[in-house]
Design a protein that fits this description.
2,3-Dihydroxybiphenyl 1,2-Dioxygenase, domain 1, four-stranded mixed beta sheet, about 35% strand
Length: about 130
């Protein structure tokens, strides 16, 4: 069994695509419109055949409630990994990303948490 797709609800798919590609550096993988629905995924440029991140709209009331609730509780909607968290933190800070947690040592890792501007908190982790 493999994980090939996971998702993060967003409040605006166009804004999300811009943030996840231009700020975070992901690459658009799929962008298919069918009626009023848009199937939009991004991938890591380092693993373009790897796990896709689906960016579905939060227009379902349950999705919107879930997204708002975990955001208010400070729970990240997704976790990404990097080799150099200090470098990534400085890069994102220069791009104007708003952090809710600056680099913080935890057992076995260092983490940062930021607002993705689309209704989510995202955690970035460096192991070790």
């Amino acid at each position: 069994m493999k994980i090939k797709l996971t998702s993060v609800f967003v409040d605006n798919q166009g804004k999300a695509l811009k943030f996840y590609t231009e700020v975070l550096g992901f690459v658009r993988k799929s962008d298919i419109t069918a009626g009023g629905y848009r199937w939009l995924t991004v991938v890591s440029p380092e693993e373009q055949d790897g796990t896709q991140l689906l960016l579905p709209p939060n227009d379902n009331p349950a999705a919107k409630s879930y997204q708002e609730s975990i955001f208010k509780q400070g729970i990240p909607a997704a976790m990404f990994f990097v080799d150099d968290i200090q470098n990534e933190y400085q890069r994102l800070k220069k791009l104007g990303v708003r952090f809710t947690m600056e680099p913080t040592k935890t057992p076995g890792s260092t983490i940062i948490v930021f607002d993705d501007t689309c209704g989510n908190l995202i955690q970035v982790t460096q192991l070790g």
